[in-house]
Amino acid sequence: MRMRKKKHLEERLSDVSEYFYISTSDDRNFNTAINDKDYLDLEKWFGKERPLYLEVGCGKGKFAVEFAKTHPEINLLAVEKDPNVIVLACEAAKRENLSNLRFLKCSAEYLERHIKAEAVQRIFLNFSCPYPKKKYASHRLTNHTFLSIYKRLMAPNAEIHQKTDNMHFFEFSIEQFSGNGFALKNVTLDLHNSDFEGNIITEYESRFLALGQPIYRLEAYIK
Description:
The chain has an eight-stranded mixed beta sheet, with helices on both faces. With 223 residues, the chain is of the alpha/beta class. The protein contains nine helices and eight strands.
């Protein structure tokens, strides 16, 4: 179900305009649109050069805000395509006065318009929509099309960290990573009953934990 437009959305976005950039293009075909580069000046925007991490699909920003607070040595660019959601994330970042967190309103297909090749040290995929029906598999953020985009953005030795509550999506992701030049490590089928340290709980994760559902997690890197 699509979220109803929030009241005073434009005014609220204006109040946090320093925290986000809206991707725009007249070309609705991302295969050609990405050739019209609109690179973000990340050093100027963040105010300081630091390693760049990317969260694709940040939702209301709970993970992004907590990560930025606990890792001031990292610049985190969080991506979300719904303005109704990204405004909440930007407002949370502004309340915390986070200089190392910025947001990009953009679909993942267009990331290469705005981020230079080999610029990203880590990518987070936290509870991406699993699109359970097979006919929508191309929309899954671990589909081979998206993995190809990530690979071009990833610096040498960069990693992708994925978390999901959906077992079938996790299995699909493992197949896609393994078949597209990635190796896997730190794979767990029950994150909260593992010895993994430093986990930041997202909005969705809290819900699934309350229901007693296991959380699946992996780290992928280019072989």
